[in-house]
## 1
Amino acid sequence: MEKEQQEMVQEQEQATYEQEQHPTVSEEEKEHGQTEEQQEQDQLKAKDELAEANKKIAELEGKLQDMENRYLRLHADFDNFRRRTRLEFEAAEKYRAQSLITDLLPTLDNFERALKIEAEDEKSKSILQGMEMVYRSLVEALKKEGVEAIEAVGKPFDPHLHQAVMQVEDNNYEPNTVVEELQKGYKLKDRVIRPAMVKVSQ
């Protein structure tokens, strides 16, 4: 009897050992199924994380591109502002005397009209000589500032330099040529400050 019990105990222990060493097929399948499901979940999670990271990268790249564009626009605006300021300063320096010269032109016109008067006696001649000296001094001072008279008579009519107030027939000149100057025109360096008032041949 004791021998039979010992054999039964040994058989149970052997069966338990074999189960531990060799799991049943259903348990292996169950464990394998759980592993594949876990792997799929991990893969999906990794894909979601990658997609989220790519989305953030795209947003950051967009912001960076926008900031670069804004910087380039600001830089271009600043360059334009600096160039425009420099040109305005240079123009102001170049034509600084224009306002004064414009105010003096009627005085030159009056001098020229007065100098065309014929003197009848020595006193008048003396006065005209004094006026001519003042006129020449004024003209020289204006030349130093870059003022010059616009050439007119005998020149082709140029609307940028001449103001036509009348057209006449004159066989001595080609058509569209200035035949007479009614009022002198002047330039300050390369800028016309008053066009010449002229008659033009037809």
Note: Strands lie at 147-149, 162-168, 178-183, 186-188, 191-194, 196-201.
## 2
Amino acid sequence: MLNTTLSPLIPLYHTLSSLPIAPKRARDKLVLFSSSSSLPSFSVSAVSTKEDTAHVITQDTFDFKAYMLHKANTVNQALDAAIALRDPEKIHQAMRYSLLAGGKRVRPLLCIAACELVGGAEETAIPAACAVEMIHTMSLIHDDLPCMDNDDLRRGKPTNHKVFGEDVAVLAGDALLAFAFEHVAVATKGVAAARVVRAVGELAKSIGGEGLVAGQVVDIDSEGVSNVGLERLEFIHLHKTAALLEAAVVLGAIMGGGTEEEVEKLRKFARSIGLLFQVVDDILDVTKSSEELGKTAGKDLVADKVTYPKLLGIHESKEFADKLIEDAKEQLAGFDPLKAAPLFALTNYIAYRQN
């Protein structure tokens, strides 16, 4: 393991993500990976200072579990309705198999919460939220293929290619990718055409040669390489994982009619939680079982992939996660604290998740 400290990592992360370094706030400190499996409830109160408005989360009135279940159910119904069984039936079965297999629906929830934060309505964000989840599902189907991560388990079920074959799995991913853009363009209602076009452009950029694909390629090229450093690891995950999470939040803000300032603050928020998601994922991969994760545990170690625990160790990786939490919350300062409650809670959920 590389013997390094957190101090050189923080400036590197901020250089790559263009985020300001947030001041240390002890009250925002989280204990990661609580043994409790229940989802917490939160309330939000605002404390005004001369410099800014600081948001404090306490466990009281905001029922995050109810919020998450309601939004996830709404998204699941919309996904089910969006991709119905039709001819050719096999490809639609394969698409639905992975798309409706469950999952936390974090990306769609982020999209809806961002839309509502800037004054938009849930129904306005639903097509974009579904599109992001379709693309995320495509990436999982393709990730699991033998030519990629070669995985047999996803969300506690056999992976798509194990059920439908590699050829159909590839095509199912392709079909989900194409339909995602069609769905945003056709199903979005009550949003100015210019905003829809901008959202489509943001989504495309997040998954192409400047986004998810770029991160995937560098990740593949880094397997088995002994001298992969933090800068390259940051590049991989800011593109492979954070880019689509960023797109989810930004699409929600655009569809909701957010100002340029609001969109950019939420973009920076999303980069922090996107990287946080991957840091947590890396830690869970080496601390949880396959049964707990619903997917193959320890596969990064087997594939000799570079991860945050491999480069920094578990303790320093958790410290970096704490820093990302602070940065994410800092970007929410200035928004209505009640409307921002879901994004605060989703940040905590990403940090606390057990799979």
Note: The two ends are 24 Å apart (CA to CA).
